[in-house]
Structure formats: structure tokens, C-alpha cells
Backbone:
């Protein structure tokens, strides 16, 4: 039974992992805690649901949802992130939270506040391995998540575009001196992190066959916890953190009860922030110069 | 006063108290996303004292506030080792943990909620909110308020000038917590019922939202932000479903156009100069 | 601090005494076995090519960095291991090379922050001084501004002021702590000739008042007009010490400056 819970935890963790990677791209490179990402996660699931209801085939509905999420993310870049250079650092955070509230309420107006059933893609197809039940949908989404993250990690390490992104992450001025076009790179990053978040929302909808206008909040905030626990700005940190949070959540539900999930997950986050703010595999921040 | 108007003004009073609980630490550069947690501590502690120990509200509410402040000190000391986004997230996690603890605490009703036996009339709530505003206006005229800004804008130099940066930071954090606890305790005694689900992350987030909207450069920003946030959605009542969407849209556009918030220091200086010019 | 430290010999103690100071950053030795002292009531210059470690000395004395070894005494009190926040109380204040004023605050408010050590009781902290017209703190700050001819800027937001004005306000703030030793990091850098003259007069007035100055400065004419003594650093080491005219003929000093920047 425990091994079944561990598998369930890893499946959920894969969703957290994708959203955490989306957050970590924004924070590691742009130093922007983008709270609109849970909204984009929700758009991935809810819009795919809406398009399917219009009778669109699955891949068109999924593609449409991702496309809209990417467009909204460009708006976030325009209206929230670009204002970062003026005013306090909290402003873009507030604006991105504003986007979260806006998206949730727009979807609520269109589809109502109730939880809706997302149609099953792989009708009741499960694999049984020695008493363990593993859904095909979950297996597929775990494979997609891990494959995507591995590809992203390779992309950042081994390609020229990836190196440019890492240069911007390390030092914006150096990047400018090296002639990197930051103005063009930033919107691309916003689209990338939006696609990751929306894809996670889509996979969540397919896996758990349910969507609602508020599905992004709980998942998104736990993904932030996952990112910090793993180490802000590190892709593999987000992976470890995501899987860890997924495990902690599923295990505390099955061992203690559903009401203590927030205590374990956010308690873990709090302890990590106090004891090791740079996360499990992050580097400590550099000292300022006078 | 009509029942509706009184109801709206009571909400405004609670929002004003919450706004200053966010403002105090924010003035020192700390974004507290867990203010609802401290409200919960004040609310539950005060309600427990009235219900189980038979205390009068007048003693229970200050004790609830002190309890929240004490937790603020105890938690602030380790948590304030972090800065910026890390601190915001630590307070965010803290708020979640506190709310979840009360959700599981059977002695105060757990998930079923907790009725409160004593009652605070609207007049008392208004008086408290006005008291908080006056107190904050007074504090904003002191060196303490000056040092909050100093610590926020350059902690290294503030330290070299001999200011206890840690002391100021912990004081700002704990005073904000105590203020939140005070508001929470009043809330418990006015509505005579509390449930842990009320003190959720969105309560914290919305409070931060309208404080930043009002602006943190002057002491009046939070008041204006809270008033705007409470009253404008009421005016938009005609399109009930749309009002949060419109409000969010408004905030996004507003922050893009005026990132310093509505009420700024230079705005005040402009007014002062104008009035000086007029009187001269 | 009320009881004198055992090493203190008040009458003879220099204002600032640095002995055997060592500091490395990531294996690079920034300060090597540095010893010198600054006599009371006079101006001493700390000069040397860029990167010689002058600002690092200031940072070690004010406590921004901890020392690896060696000792620092201010007015006879050992401050080597004192937390940075407590050092200003021993009588040493500083200005900053890249002006560290709080740009959102007004000039007057910045100066009030500078007064902190003289108004640090809980009562002072909670006095609503802004409600009291012409409060003593505001009067003092305005008087200090007037002395530098800057009184018209009192209510301005610092961020909006020109560089030369901010540079001099940074200096005024350092003087307001009531410190007897001032460490000034390139006070004349970026000033125009008339501002430099005003600065020179201001510093001479401070010396006449009995203050001790330690000045990092590249403008050798300025150094010559203020400082009786100079200490020359190169690669974190003291290579010469004495009156500028003597030190300047020292071949080691010439060598240190040639090929880097030949001012003076």
C-alpha cells in the first residue's frame, strides 16, 4: 500500500515539478516571482476543457489552450514585468497576483465556479504491476514531464540560446556587454514558462479528470514551495522539490489525514527557508560591495 | 445609519486595520504575505479567553493582539534572517501553517468553526479603526518611522550609523503582527463566529494588494487603498460577477501606469508647496 | 564602553591605530600586515593606485568586513571585534565613495539618520519630532547644512539632487554623529573647482574644531592642501609614510604610480 502511495506521490510531484520549473525560469533568469503562473496553469486545464466542449479534437483543444496561455503571458510581461525597473520590487508581484485574480474570475464568469469533469482520454486503462495500479494517463504525463525537464536542462547547458539565457541569469550587465538582445529574450522566456505551466495544468486535467477556475492556486503555491525547497533558479532543484512535495502531500494524507497537508508542506518550506534559504541544491547569494 | 451602510463601514474598518498591519513591516521592506495567520492568532486567542476563561472582551482583545505580537517576535527572529522574496515566501508559508493548525485544533472547534460569546458593536469597531489610524499617523512622525525607511533603503548604511537593523526589523514585523492580531480579535468579537478557512492566503494577498495600490511612501496610502478596495466593489455591485475581474484589471493597469501607488511622498510635497504658495 | 579598555592610554593614544592588519578575499590578500596610526586633531591621507586597498581599510575599520588578523583601536578602544553597528559610538564615522544616501528620503531626514547615535534612547525613538515645529534635531541638521551652504536643499528628496550636492551631504551626515574621527572616501571626486574649494574650507573648519580626518583621495593638490601626513598603499601593503612632499620623491611610490595613473 505504501508503494502505491509513493507512486501516486511521484505522479502528483511531476505536476508540481513542471510548475516549479516554470517559476524557477522566471525567478532564476528574470528575478521575478511570477504569481500569474498558477493562473496560466488553470488556463491550460480550463480552456482545454472549454474547447473540448465546443467539439474540438483533443490536440487542437490542447494546442489552443497552450496558445492562449502564451499570449496572456506576453501581456503579463508587458504590464507587470516591464514596470520592475521603476518603483519597488513588490510592484510586479502585485500585478502578477492581479493577473491571477483576473484570470480566475474571467474563467469563473464563463464556466461557473463549480468543479467540472474533464473527459477521460484513456478510458480506464491501468497497468497492474504486482498489486500496484498505475494509470496510463499518469504514466504518459510523468514521461512527458521528465522528458521535458531533461530536454530543458540539456537546452540550457548545451545550446547557444541556453548559454545566452544563463548569462542573463548570472549578470544582466555582462549579458548586455556581450551583445545579448535581452529585450527579445525576455518575452521568449515568458512564453516558455507559460507553456510549462499551462502544460502542467493540461496534464493535471487529463490525470485527475477534473478542472475548476481555482485549480491553479493550491498547485501553484505548492509549486513555489517546491522551487524554494529544491533551490531557487535551479532546474534540478525544482525537480527534486516537486517530487518531494508530491510525496509529502500524498503520504501525509494517507498517514495522518487531509487536513494536515498544509502543515507538512508549508512547514517544510518554512524550515528550509530558515535553515537553508538557498534550498537543497542552491548556492548562497553573493555579498554586496560598498 | 442603514444596516447595509453599517455593514460596509465595518468591513472597511477591518480592512483598514489589516492594511496597517501589512504597511508597518512593508515600510521596513518586509513583504508579509502571512498577515491572515496573525489575524487568526489574535482572533482565536481572544475568543478562547472570552469563551473558556470568561474574560471580558476589553481584556481579551489586547491579549489576543499581544499573543500575535509575541508569536511575531518569536518567529520574526529566525525568519527575518531571510530577505526579499525569501522573506515574502517564508511569511506566506507561515500564514498557511497557522491557518492549518487552527483548522485542526479541536479545542477551538477545528473545521466546524468557533462561536464567540462576547460582542463588539459597530461603534466599538469604528473607534478601534480610527484609533489605529491616529496611532499610525503619530508613529509616522517619529524616528522609528524614519528608521523603517532607512533600513528598507540601505540596511548596511543604517547599521554603520549605529541603528540596530535587526531590532528595527523585528519590531516592525512584531508590531505588524500585533496589529493584525488586534484586528483579528475585534473581528472575532464583532461577527461572534470565526473559522480557520476565513484566514486564508487570499485574505493576506488582497490586503497586500490594496496597501501597495494605495502606496507605502506615506502613512495615508494604506487608508486610501483600503477605502478604495472596500467601497469601489460595492459601487460596482450592479455587475456582481464582474466586480472582482474588473477590480483586478484595474489594479494591473493602475500599477503599470503608477508603480509607486496612489498616494506618494512627492504628491504630498506638491500639495504642501501649493498651499504654501496660496497662503503667501 | 563606559569603562576604558585596558589597552587605552587616553592622553597619548592616537585617534586611530591600525596594527598588523590582514584581510583576504577568496584567497586574494587585499591587506597585508598593515600598520599605521592617525594622530589626533590632524588630517591624514590614505593614497595609492586604484585597487591598493584604501576603501577596504575603511570597510575594516567601520566593520563592514571582519579582519583576518591584526587590531584596530579608535581613541584607544579596541574595536577589532566590535559589531559594526557599535563602532560609530567609539567615535569613528565615515562617508562613502559611491554616495550611500537614502535616495527616497529628504536631505533633512538623511541627516537625522546620521544623528542616530546621539538620539538613540527609546524615548527619542518614539518622539513625534515632526509634529514639533523647529525641533532641536531639525535645527541642528539645518545648522550643519547651512555651514556648508546647502541649507536650500533641506526639504529636497536626495535622489533628485546633483552629484556634487549629494557628495557633500554624505559628508555632512558623517559629521552629525558627533564622531571625533571622520573617514572620508574620495570627498573631492566629481566636484567642480568651486565645490572643491568649498569642501576644502569645510574640512579645514572641521580640523580647526579638533576633529581627526582620514582621507582617501586621488587629487594630490587637494591632499597637499589639507593633509600633513600621508600613508601610501600598494597591493594592500604600506610602502611609504610621511609628508606628501617627502613621500612623493620615494622611488617605491613613483614606481607604484607609474604605469597606473600619473596624477599630481
Residues:
Amino acid at each position: 500500500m505504501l508503494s502505491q502511495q509513493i507512486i501516486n506521490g511521484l505522479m502528483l510531484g511531476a505536476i508540481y515539478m513542471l510548475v516549479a520549473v516554470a517559476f524557477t525560469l522566471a525567478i532564476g533568469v528574470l528575478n521575478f516571482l511570477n504569481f500569474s503562473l498558477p493562473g496560466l496553469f488553470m488556463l491550460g486545464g480550463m480552456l482545454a476543457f472549454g474547447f473540448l466542449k465546443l467539439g474540438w479534437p483533443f490536440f487542437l483543444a490542447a494546442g489552443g489552450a497552450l496558445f492562449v496561455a502564451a499570449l496572456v503571458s506576453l501581456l503579463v510581461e508587458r504590464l507587470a514585468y516591464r514596470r520592475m525597473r521603476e518603483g519597488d520590487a513588490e510592484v510586479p508581484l502585485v500585478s502578477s497576483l492581479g493577473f491571477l485574480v483576473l484570470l480566475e474570475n474571467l474563467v469563473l464568469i464563463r464556466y461557473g465556479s463549480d468543479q467540472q469533469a474533464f473527459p477521460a482520454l484513456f478510458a480506464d486503462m491501468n497497468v497492474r504491476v504486482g498489486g500496484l495500479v498505475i494509470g496510463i494517463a499518469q504514466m504518459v504525463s510523468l514521461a512527458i514531464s521528465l522528458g521535458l525537464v531533461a530536454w530543458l536542462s540539456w537546452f540550457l547547458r548545451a545550446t547557444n540560446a541556453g548559454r545566452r539565457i544563463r548569462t542573463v541569469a548570472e549578470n544582466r550587465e555582462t549579458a548586455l556587454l556581450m551583445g545579448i538582445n535581452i529585450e527579445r529574450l525576455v518575452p521568449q522566456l515568458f512564453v516558455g514558462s507559460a507553456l510549462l505551466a499551462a502544460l502542467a495544468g493540461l496534464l493535471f486535467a487529463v490525470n485527475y479528470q477534473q478542472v475548476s477556475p481555482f485549480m491553479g492556486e493550491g498547485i501553484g503555491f505548492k509549486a513555489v514551495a517546491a522551487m524554494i525547497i529544491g533551490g531557487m533558479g535551479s532546474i534540478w532543484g525544482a525537480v527534486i522539490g516537486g517530487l518531494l512535495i508530491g510525496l509529502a502531500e500524498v503520504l501525509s494524507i494517507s498517514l495522518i489525514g487531509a487536513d494536515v497537508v498544509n502543515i507538512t508542506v508549508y512547514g517544510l518550506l518554512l524550515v528550509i527557508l530558515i535553515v537553508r534559504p538557498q534550498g537543497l541544491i542552491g548556492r548562497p547569494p553573493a555579498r554586496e560591495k560598498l | 445609519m442603514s444596516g447595509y451602510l453599517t455593514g460596509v463601514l465595518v468591513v472597511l474598518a477591518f480592512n483598514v486595520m489589516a492594511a496597517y498591519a501589512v504597511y508597518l513591516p512593508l515600510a521596513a521592506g518586509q513583504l508579509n504575505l502571512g498577515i491572515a495567520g496573525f489575524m487568526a492568532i489574535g482572533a482565536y486567542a481572544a475568543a478562547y479567553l472570552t469563551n473558556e476563561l470568561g474574560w471580558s472582551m476589553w481584556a481579551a482583545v489586547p491579549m489576543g493582539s499581544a499573543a500575535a505580537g509575541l508569536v511575531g517576535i518569536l518567529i520574526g527572529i529566525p525568519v527575518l534572517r531571510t530577505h526579499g522574496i525569501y522573506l515574502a515566501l517564508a511569511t506566506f508559508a507561515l500564514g498557511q501553517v497557522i491557518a492549518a493548525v487552527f483548522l485542526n485544533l479541536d479545542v477551538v472547534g477545528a473545521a466546524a468553526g468557533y462561536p464567540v460569546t462576547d460582542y463588539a458593536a459597530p461603534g466599538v469597531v469604528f473607534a478601534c479603526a480610527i484609533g489605529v489610524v491616529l496611532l499610525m499617523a503619530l508613529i509616522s512622525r517619529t524616528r522609528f518611522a524614519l528608521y523603517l525607511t532607512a533600513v528598507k533603503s540601505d540596511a548596511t548604511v543604517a547599521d554603520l550609523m549605529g541603528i540596530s537593523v535587526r531590532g528595527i526589523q523585528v519590531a516592525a514585523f512584531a508590531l505588524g503582527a500585533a496589529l493584525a492580531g488586534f484586528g483579528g480579535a475585534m473581528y472575532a468579537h464583532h461577527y461572534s463566529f470565526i473559522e480557520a478557512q476565513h484566514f486564508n492566503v487570499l485574505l493576506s494577498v488582497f490586503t497586500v494588494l490594496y496597501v501597495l495600490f494605495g502606496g507605502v511612501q506615506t502613512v495615508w496610502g494604506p487608508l486610501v487603498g483600503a477605502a478604495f478596495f472596500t467601497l469601489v466593489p460595492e459601487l460596482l455591485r450592479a455587475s456582481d460577477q464582474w466586480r472582482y475581474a474588473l477590480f483586478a484589471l484595474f489594479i494591473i493597469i493602475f500599477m503599470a501606469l503608477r508603480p509607486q501607488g496612489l498616494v506618494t511622498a512627492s504628491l504630498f510635497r506638491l500639495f504642501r508647496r501649493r498651499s504654501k504658495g496660496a497662503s503667501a | 564602553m563606559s569603562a576604558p579598555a585596558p589597552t587605552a592610554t587616553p592622553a597619548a593614544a592616537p585617534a586611530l591605530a591600525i596594527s598588523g592588519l590582514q584581510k583576504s578575499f577568496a584567497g586574494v590578500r587585499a591587506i597585508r600586515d598593515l600598520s599605521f596610526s592617525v594622530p589626533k586633531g590632524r588630517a591624514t591621507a590614505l593614497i595609492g593606485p586604484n585597487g591598493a586597498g584604501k576603501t577596504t581599510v575603511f570597510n575594516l575599520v567601520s566593520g563592514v568586513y571582519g579582519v583576518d588578523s591584526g587590531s584596530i583601536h579608535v581613541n584607544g578602544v579596541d574595536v577589532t571585534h566590535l559589531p559594526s553597528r557599535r563602532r560609530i559610538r567609539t567615535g569613528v564615522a565615515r562617508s562613502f565613495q559611491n554616495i550611500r544616501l537614502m535616495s527616497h528620503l529628504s536631505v533633512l531626514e538623511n541627516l537625522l539618520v546620521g544623528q542616530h547615535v546621539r538620539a538613540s534612547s527609546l524615548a527619542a525613538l518614539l518622539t513625534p519630532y515632526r509634529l514639533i515645529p523647529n525641533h532641536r534635531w531639525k535645527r541642528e541638521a539645518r545648522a550643519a547644512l547651512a555651514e556648508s551652504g546647502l541649507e536650500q536643499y533641506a526639504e529636497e528628496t536626495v535622489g533628485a539632487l546633483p552629484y556634487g550636492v549629494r557628495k557633500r551631504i554624505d559628508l555632512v551626515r558623517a559629521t552629525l554623529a558627533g564622531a571625533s574621527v571622520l573617514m572620508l572616501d574620495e570627498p573631492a571626486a566629481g566636484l567642480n573647482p568651486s565645490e572643491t574649494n568649498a569642501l576644502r574650507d569645510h574640512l579645514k573648519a572641521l580640523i580647526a574644531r579638533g576633529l581627526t580626518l582620514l582621507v582617501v583621495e586621488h587629487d594630490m593638490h587637494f591632499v597637499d592642501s589639507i593633509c600633513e601626513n600621508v600613508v601610501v598603499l600598494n597591493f594592500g601593503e604600506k610602502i611609504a609614510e610621511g609628508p606628501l612632499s617627502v613621500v612623493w620623491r620615494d622611488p617605491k611610490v613613483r614606481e607604484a604610480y607609474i604605469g597606473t595613473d600619473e596624477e599630481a
Summary: The two ends of chain B are 42 Å apart (CA to CA). The interface with chain C takes residues 138-144, 146-147, 149-150, 153-154, 156-165, 217, 265-266, 269 of chain B (CB under 8 Å). The first strand of chain B starts at residue 114 and ends at 115.
